Amino acid sequence: NWVEKEWNELEKKWSKWNSQEISIFIGHTLKCKKSKINQYNEIIKKNKMDGMSLSKMSKNDWMDIFCFETFLQTCDIYDSFNKIYTKQAVPKEYLCPLSNLIMNDPVFALNGITYDRSSIMNQYQSIPNYFSLFIDGKLRLFPDHGLRQNIQNFSKNSK
């Protein structure tokens, strides 16, 4: 219970994470040994990284900087950080209801809900009554240009 409480406090201040807190986050996510966490801490210090710099990194950046053993580990870290980032900083309407991540290409579906295009294309079967999203056997989606512009502006101003 104490660990969970500490983790919740650490999540809340992600933008101000120092090298030790970033290495704890990585270690917690990957369930690493202390020696590996110390290695990550040295990499972070060397690259002068903080929590805000993490929000600007791509998966490839994470892989290049930390040399994780597998790309799956990179994806785990990237996705875990983005969940923390989005939970603390991003307006709900910018998040896809399927992936819970910031939408890159928001689209309206026939059910009146906006999704990220890639999420709905890959996960439409998880939506109740998903057959109502189709016309003549085709998934009908309509770009939400206004929301896309708002998300792009938010992303630029957040970095």
From TrEMBL:
GO terms for molecular function: ubiquitin-protein transferase activity. GO terms for biological process: protein ubiquitination. InterPro entries: Ubox_domain, Znf_RING/FYVE/PHD. It holds the Pfam family U-box. It comes from the Eukaryota. SUPFAM superfamilies: RING/U-box (SSF57850). Residues 93-154 form the U-box domain. This is U-box domain-containing protein. It comes from Reticulomyxa filosa.
